[in-house]
């Protein structure tokens, strides 16, 4: 059960672990305690063999995460801020490096560190009213939790510069057109429920194959094609040794849905 005093709650939806930033009164802003909780609970879900995917969302319907907790930042020295920004790497790294798919269910605004948190995820689903932005330059700083690095890799350099230099907000439809989100939920639907339904092929899929595919993509993204193809071969070989692969062949022959066990 979740610690009721924690700024992050955990829910289990079948084979999916759901992390909910539970600070709706602060627009789910990232305080120091919130970052530590995401790191601790994220590690628990990544290491849980019964969890096949992780969904990250915010409480309420107004904000996924509005970014850094500016109230907490008041009075911080430059060194304090440096340490705080460092927590984004140390605490959120477990989700960034997860071999299980991580999906953001963006239930409202995702600004600054909130969008950087969503960019750590492998896939992003947005509510129709969601807004996404990296407004840091309008506040005299730059995105310091990976935004200048991850956003160009997702939407391209020119569009990333447009968002960052102009502090430009994108609505859900435009974010979908830009490739910043993978899906926009239907109007009136719960973005979390819609996300869970959408990722059912992951929750019911072959975890060894999914992990191998994620690692093949992530480790070869910026290497020469020849090396990328060799890495793909290595990860493909992992799947050949799995019982899940044999189960898929049996299920095909028997005209039934395979029952993958992650072995």
UniProtKB/TrEMBL annotation:
Assigned protein family: Belongs to the enoyl-CoA hydratase/isomerase family.
Species the sequence originates in: Polyangium spumosum
Signal sequence, renumbered to the chain: none
Keywords from the named record: Lyase
UniProt cross-references to PANTHER family, sorted A to Z: ENOYL-COA HYDRATASE, MITOCHONDRIAL, ENOYL-COA HYDRATASE-RELATED
Any Gene Ontology biological process: fatty acid beta-oxidation
Family annotation (Pfam families): ECH_1
Protein name from the UniProt record: Enoyl-CoA hydratase
Record-level Gene Ontology MF annotations: enoyl-CoA hydratase activity
EC number: 4.2.1.17
Upper taxonomic lineage: Bacteria, Pseudomonadati, Myxococcota, Polyangia, Polyangiales
